[in-house]
Amino acid sequence: MLQGPHVLGHDKPLIRLSFTSCVVGTVSLPLLGLITCIFISSVFHFQDSTDTHCKVTNYLPSISASISLSPECHIWRFCIGLHSAPRFLVAVAYFNFYKGRFSTRFLEWLLSCLNFLCAITENFGLLLLTYVSSNETYLVHKEGFVLFIASSVIHMVLTCRLWLVIKKYSLIPEDVKSFHWKIRCLILNIAFCCLAAYFYWKHNMYCEQGSYTFFALFEYCVVFSNMAFHLTAFWDFKSREMVVISPEEGKDF
């Protein structure tokens, strides 16, 4: 459960972890996993990971290619699988946070519900594209990727809209800082998405040398900016703790 600085009641805490540590750990898993997969693919599987139907020289593997080979796919699946449960918990924590803030504002409450749904589908899309590689079932992998990108962008837009209201009435410096960084990450993410889509289209249409390399580069930037956006939870729940509790023996329920 998510608690403030102290645990209420008489239940015995088994695990006590600051929410900021949980956030950093959750974001670090896919970050380190992705960097590791790209490194291994570039060094040991360069030809296979950069080969496309155009048969032109490419210098960087795409993310899909990086996580489809072995052992890269196993590393990526391990990192994403381990980080997915905390991601669902963070989504619930944000939903409860918004519900408390916007209990009397119908529009913002409605947006927070939609935001929660997008957070869930974003995580589900990431799991889908992770455990169904492009080498296995390309169509399912592609649909998972589209679901992840669409949900993540909508989620970021809705989050910034909600935090615009929070910043307006908040006197806490961390709230203002969090909002500004969310806006920056959102703008960068959308820009990187557009650039990645442009170079992907250019590569498929004209098979120009270097287009796929730029697509892969901006694809990395899309994911990194998404991770940076989620890392802003560091300020949003700075005084909170993740606590696993054990009820006292003999306690009636």
Automatic annotation (TrEMBL):
The chain crosses the membrane at residues 21-44, 75-97, 109-132, 144-164, 185-201, 213-235. The keyword Transmembrane applies. InterPro entries: CWH43_N, PGAP2. One of its GO terms (cellular component) is endoplasmic reticulum membrane. One of its GO terms (biological process) is GPI anchor biosynthetic process. Involved in the fatty acid remodeling steps of GPI-anchor maturation where the unsaturated acyl chain at sn-2 of inositol phosphate is replaced by a saturated stearoyl chain. May catalyze the second step of the fatty acid remodeling, by reacylating a lyso-GPI intermediate at sn-2 of inositol phosphate by a saturated chain. The fatty acid remodeling steps is critical for the integration of GPI-APs into lipid rafts. It is found in: Golgi apparatus membrane. Belongs to the PGAP2 family. It is a multi-pass membrane protein. This is Acyltransferase PGAP2. It comes from the Eukaryota. Keywords: Golgi apparatus, GPI-anchor biosynthesis, Membrane, Transmembrane, Transmembrane helix. Residues 22-238 form the CWH43-like N-terminal domain.
